[in-house]
Specification:
The complex is a heterodimer of chains A (about 160) and B (about 70). Chain A has five helices and five strands; from the N terminus they run H-E-E-E-H-H-E-E-H-H. With about 160 residues, chain A is α+β, with helices and mostly antiparallel strands. The radius of gyration of chain A is 17 Å and the shape is globular. Chain B has one domain (about 1-65): q64v53_bacfr protein fold (Single Sheet), CATH 2.20.140. Chain B is elongated, with a radius of gyration of 12 Å. Classes of the chains: A alpha+beta (about 160), B alpha+beta (about 70). At the A-B interface, strand 1 and strand 2 of A face strand 2, strand 3 and strand 4 of B.
Chain lengths: ~160, ~70
């Protein structure tokens, strides 16, 4: 049997949504990375109505990247995103993260459940939008705007 | 969950392989369609008959299905 069957997560989904799940489907929306198992759009219906979520599954990287990914001070620390969502410190206005509806952790992995964000993909943005995003990012992370604009020109 | 019945489309390559399975546990039924390119669909069913009907709906989309031993 393929692995997908074992991670269907219908009970977890019902717990998050607070209603029995009638049907749902998943499709990949991003490629996996060193610590990212999958990023999937999860859509369907419960007895209470339709839903659209994104599930990101992350695990500690193994091999050469493991030590760095386990260091909270390293840029690739694998739990950082989960900690950020759990912290309650993410901005609620301006440049905001997708609304997180649940962070589930078990011995195998962490699953971040967020609302789906429907917006044009960043690669189609005009430079002015990158600049605006850069100014807002600057406020959050102190990354200089010129860095963001330079990055946008490269892609 | 117990896999009651399952089928696959005979393809070994990950992007083309498809699988349909009926699961049951404690009187709860679920039908999975693990499709190509990582797409998956799941349907919760109230009865065995409904699970069979949902599985038939998934199977009707494809061809060359064969029973999957598990």
């Amino acid at each position: 049997m393929r692995r997908g069957a074992s991670v269907a997560g219908v009970d977890e989904l019902a717990e998050i949504l607070g209603a029995p799940v009638v049907r749902y489907s998943t499709e990949p929306v991003s490629s996996a990375g060193a610590g990212t198992v999958a990023v999937e759009r999860v859509t369907g219906t419960t007895t209470a109505g339709p839903f659209r979520l994104v599930r990101k599954r992350i695990r500690p990287p193994v091999g050469a990247r493991a030590a760095a990914a386990d260091d909270p001070h390293h840029v690739t620390y694998w739990r950082r995103e989960a900690h950020a969502y759990r912290s309650g410190l993410l901005p609620a206005t301006g440049l905001v993260a997708p609304e997180c509806v649940a962070v589930h952790e078990d011995p195998a992995e962490i699953r971040l459940w967020t609302r789906e964000v429907t917006a044009p993909p960043a690669y189609s943005w005009p430079e002015s939008r990158y600049a605006r995003a850069g100014r807002r990012t600057d406020r959050v992370t102190r990354v200089p705007v010129r860095t963001c604009v330079r990055y946008s020109r490269r892609s | 969950m117990t896999v009651v019945r399952a089928w696959w489309n005979g393809r070994h390559d990950g992007d083309a392989r498809e699988q349909v399975a009926i699961h049951e546990t404690g009187g709860r039924w679920r039908v999975d369609h693990l499709g190509p390119h990582g797409r998956c669909e799941y349907v919760t069913c109230l009865t065995s008959a409904q699970a069979d009907a949902e599985a038939a709906r998934f199977l009707a989309r494809g061809a060359a299905w064969r029973p999957l031993s598990h």
